[in-house]
Amino acid sequence: MKPENKDESKDEKKKEAKARLKEELQEFSVIAAYLGICFAFLATIKSLILIQLGIHDFVHGYTVAAVEALGLGKIVLLCHNLPFMKNTLDRRPIVISAFVKSLCLAVIVFIGGQIEEKIFARHAAEVAMQQRVFMDCTRVFCLVFVFYLMFIWRELNETLGPGKLKSLLLTPRGS
Question: Which residue has the higher pLDDT, 162 or 3?
Fold first, then answer.
């Protein structure tokens, strides 16, 4: 009888792992798609500003947006389970928790962008310092906003229960 129980428990563990992987992949896809759309929008705005300075950088902007969306999608999933995020921030009000998480990710993206600019030096020389500071500040503000909306959605969905927030927002009233 014991060998059958071992096989059953292995099968159950495999099914659980497969279900968890499927759930995480689904969650990653939603996050990456959301971030991809938002980052593509930000890349478009940046490229339109740079065109006024004679710099055509659409392809690079969209490539970076896609890579950032994929990379940060995974980082969001990993950070969500960090003890700092779970134990400390999840006990705070959702508004504060989402804002701190948004700031953390915005700083990560900003630093990554600065490193990329230093390595590839795509258009640093052509952009005046005043314009650069304005573009950087605007980018950080937009990133905080994008991440804030994402974390508010995630935390409200987690608090209300899976699917409740989507139903609340997308189902006609009175249904």
Answer: 162
